[in-house]
Automatic annotation (TrEMBL):
<dbReference type="GO" id="GO:0005743">
    <property type="term" value="C:mitochondrial inner membrane"/>
</dbReference>
<comment type="function">
    <text>Plays a role in the assembly of the F1 component of the mitochondrial ATP synthase (ATPase).</text>
</comment>
<keyword id="KW-0999">Mitochondrion inner membrane</keyword>
<keyword id="KW-0472">Membrane</keyword>
<dbReference type="InterPro" id="IPR042272">
    <property type="entry name" value="ATP12_ATP_synth-F1-assembly_N"/>
</dbReference>
<dbReference type="InterPro" id="IPR023335">
    <property type="entry name" value="ATP12_ortho_dom_sf"/>
</dbReference>
<keyword id="KW-0143">Chaperone</keyword>
<keyword id="KW-0496">Mitochondrion</keyword>
<dbReference type="GO" id="GO:0033615">
    <property type="term" value="P:mitochondrial proton-transporting ATP synthase complex assembly"/>
</dbReference>
<dbReference type="InterPro" id="IPR011419">
    <property type="entry name" value="ATP12_ATP_synth-F1-assembly"/>
</dbReference>
<keyword id="KW-0809">Transit peptide</keyword>
<protein>
    <recommendedName>
        <fullName>ATP synthase mitochondrial F1 complex assembly factor 2</fullName>
    </recommendedName>
</protein>
<comment type="similarity">
    <text>Belongs to the ATP12 family.</text>
</comment>
<dbReference type="Pfam" id="PF07542">
    <property type="entry name" value="ATP12"/>
</dbReference>
<comment type="subunit">
    <text>Interacts with ATP5F1B; involved in the assembly of the F1 component of the mitochondrial ATP synthase (ATPase). Interacts with FMC1.</text>
</comment>
């Protein structure tokens, strides 16, 4: 159980995915799975659980740290883990607290995202992250359409057009759709508007938003999810519309389909939560942190 989540001064570090743990008495380094370009990070998917109690503490500058049996966690890059607010610290601590006898690092999405934000292993600036995220708009899931069979065309129009219309109205932009293999031609004014909008997010929030975009392969669906226009379940189903259509016609390996669906939901939900938690400035009341 999560005990004494808020203890005053103590420090700890951790992050979001795969981690490497040092011997007893030393700082803990956790190695994430998130980024495609995180070459220094080892991919460790599981490890025997080595702690009993999880807590958070407030360190210097009001930052929050994660403690496993009072030992400090560090990022893969050797930095002390700090979360910018209680909400995110509690969410990360909960990932550690709910692990059983074996730590399944691949399921600890918030921890991985934190590691990535803290270490920034690819040394990208905000502008580089925004540019990379907006590249997905050129081949956005709901903008790239098929022209047959008619039943799938109708399904795409019925399910995707309302979300596309919403984002065009919401941000006063033009996006459109296309059956061309090149996708629609996105106006420069649209790209400029989205670039400016993404620039309003802090670095941590951009990490989460880019993660959601890569999961859904869609800027449109990611924006609709973060703006709470659609739910995680809706975002995932819309991103898999063509696949679900094919499964409906040809069948599937049921267990494999379910696992893929649940994992995508988990990753997408974690990314969305990370965006909101990273933007959170208010303090979570202590009574919510008690067992």
């Amino acid at each position: 159980m999560l005990r004494n989540l808020l203890k005053l001064p103590s420090s700890l570090g951790h992050a979001l995915s795969t981690h490497n743990v040092c011997p007893r008495g030393q700082s803990l380094k956790l190695l994430p799975l998130l980024s495609r370009n995180t070459k220094p990070y080892s991919i460790i998917t599981e490890r025997k659980k080595f702690y009993e109690d999880v807590s958070i503490s407030q360190g210097e500058g009001g930052m929050f740290e994660i403690n496993l049996d009072r030992r400090k966690l560090k990022t893969p890059g050797g930095k002390l883990f700090t979360a910018p607010n209680e909400a995110l610290a509690i969410a990360v601590a909960n990932e550690w607290d709910t692990q059983k006898d074996t730590l399944k690092f691949y399921s600890m999405h918030l921890t991985t995202l934190c590691n990535t934000a803290l270490d920034n292993p690819t040394l990208r600036s905000k502008d580089q992250m925004i540019t990379a995220a907006l590249k997905y708009l050129e081949t956005d899931t709901i903008c790239y359409r098929v022209d047959e069979p008619p039943s799938l065309v109708e399904l795409q129009n019925n399910e995707w057009d309302p979300v596309l219309n919403w984002i065009e109205d919401r941000y006063n932009v033009v996006i459109g759709s296309s059956t061309s293999i090149l996708g629609p031609e996105i106006p420069k004014a649209t790209m400029d508007t989205f670039h400016q909008h993404l620039g309003s997010y802090n670095f941590w929030s951009l990490i989460g938003l880019e993660y959601v975009i890569t999961q859904l392969k869609s800027v449109v669906l990611a924006f609709a999810l973060i703006d709470k226009h659609i739910t995680v379940e809706q975002a995932v189903l819309l991103s898999r519309l063509e696949e679900e259509f094919q499964i409906g016609h040809w069948g599937n390996v049921e267990w494999a389909h379910d696992v893929d669906l649940y994992e995508l939901r988990a990753r997408t939900a974690a990314g969305a939560l990370f965006v909101h938690f990273s933007s959170e400035s208010s303090t979570v009341k202590r009574k919510l942190m008690q067992d």
